[in-house]
Design goal:
Shape: globular
Distance between the termini: 25 Å
Number of helices: 10
CATH superfamily: Aldolase class I
Number of strands: 12
Strand order of the largest sheet: 1-12-11-8-7-6-5-2
Helix content: 25-40%
CATH topology: TIM Barrel
Number of domains: 1
Oligomer: single chain
Largest sheet: 8 strands, parallel
């Protein structure tokens, strides 16, 4: 199991010590041209998580590759580059530009950002274009907002995706209680945090059953038990998001808590419980080890 960060939830150049607690670093989403993002305010707290409407603010592909990537390489971590765009060619050109960089371990295709206008092309078309452009591992990041996300997962798998990242934030809104107007300038933003966890579990479970692809599970991971549940639903890897804003030591803590949770179940490795929620016949086997 790899412990990663969710894209946009950690600046490794500002907090390299936090990044080095992880098994790999996922960049903010990179688009071909620079983006300033949405107007402020762009962040709002809620009772069950956080809303953000950053809008894919980034320096653009050319500057990212020229200035940011050499600095990220100094972390001595596998780098997963989050790739965004507004048509299949945007994604494919960025994926092609990542070739030949030893520090790049994978491209995560951001196909589901709720804070920008959606790409005109289908998820499968984007994945197919990227597959033709690069041999890099491709992880398709999908939204649980789709009425049949398992069908989308099957489509991107058929198009050449090597794995899935589940889930992206879901669109939500917060109102100022004094004005009864939206807090965010854009109106809506992407909800992350604890309130997302049950949806993430259901989505990982459904998409693993549909594809059996490797999955990076994310959405509301605050503890080692949260990570364990995503793994049991089918995630091979786990990403930390909102928790990193409040607890920079979360990677070490979550890893330790996961180890203790596994020990309590009488197993050793996360792989021992991978996709366990899909195998009810194994329940008694693990239960018999508890307290042994």
């Amino acid at each position: 199991m790899l412990l990663l960060n969710a894209s946009g939830c950690l600046d490794a150049l500002v907090a390299p010590d936090v990044a080095r607690q992880l098994d790999g670093f996922v960049t903010k989403t990179i688009t071909p041209l620079p983006r300033e993002g949405n107007a402020p305010p762009r962040i709002a707290e809620t009772a069950h998580g956080m809303l953000n409407a950053i809008g894919l603010a980034n320096p653009g592909r050319e500057r990212f590759l020229r200035e940011t990537m050499p600095r990220l390489a100094e972390l001595d971590l596998p780098i997963w580059v989050s790739v965004g765009g507004f048509c299949a060619a945007d994604y494919a050109e960025t994926c092609a530009a990542l070739q030949g960089r030893d520090e790049v371990a994978a491209a995560e295709l951001n196909l589901s950002c709720p804070n920008v206008d959606e790409a005109a092309d289908s998820a499968a078309e984007i994945v197919a274009a990227c597959r033709a452009a690069t041999p890099l591992p491709l992880y398709a990041k999908l939204s649980a907002a789709h009425p049949d996300v398992a069908a989308v997962a099957r489509a991107v798998a058929a198009a050449g995706a090597d794995g899935l990242s589940l889930i992206n934030t879901l669109r939500g809104m917060a109102l100022d209680p004094q004005t009864l107007r939206p807090v965010l300038a854009r109106g809506t933003g992407g909800l992350s945090g604890p309130g997302l966890k049950p949806i993430a579990l259901a989505t990982v479970h459904a998409c693993y059953a549909a594809t059996h692809l490797p999955i990076v599970g994310m959405g509301g991971v605050m503890t080692g038990t949260d990570a364990l549940e995503l793994i049991a639903c089918g995630a091979r890897h786990v990403a930390l998001g909102t928790v990193l804003f409040a607890d920079p030591d979360a990677p070490v803590r979550v890893r330790d808590e996961l180890g203790r949770a596994l020990e309590e179940l009488g197993v050793v490795e996360p792989d021992d419980v991978h996709a366990f929620a899909h195998s009810p016949e194994k329940t008694l086997e693990i239960a018999s080890n508890v307290g042994a």
